[in-house]
Amino acid sequence: MSGILQAASATVAAPTSPPPPPPPPSFDSNVSWPGQISTVSSASGTASGPGSNPIGGRPPYIYSWTKTGSSKISLSSLTAQNPMLIWSGLIVGDYVTGSFDLVVRDADGLKTSLGSATYDITRTS
Question: How many structural domains comprise the chain?
Fold first, then answer.
């Protein structure tokens, strides 16, 4: 028997990187604030406040409003989609301002932060 040895050759492919992850889902929210109140004639009252309309994401949504400014201006709820604006304790000549920022989270925990809704109120009589 003759001993013939044959060499086998193989090509080894270089390892490939995994594909990049998909971009996060789109999520945004429009904020509206009807008519910025400027003058009032009573010490306390309510009016339509800022509101939010989520776009994208997955319901249910969680709303979180934060406030800066006068303690005489507030919202009816800091967790409502469309809270009412409330003012109280104003005396004639008072000028007060309050700003409200909103963060919305969807069911998957995605978050979008939005700009401020600012209200200026002057009691005239």
Answer: 1
Rank 1-10, 12-21, 26-35, 91-100 by mean pLDDT and report only the highest: 91-100
* Most confident of the following: 67-71, 87-91, 97-101: 87-91
For residue 17, is it within any domain? no
Instruction: Report d(CA 119, CA 49) in Å as an integer.
Output: 9
Q: Name the CA radius of gyration of the chain, rounded.
A: 29
- pLDDT at residue 112 is higher than 80: yes
Does residue 89 form part of some domain? yes
pLDDT of residue 10: 59
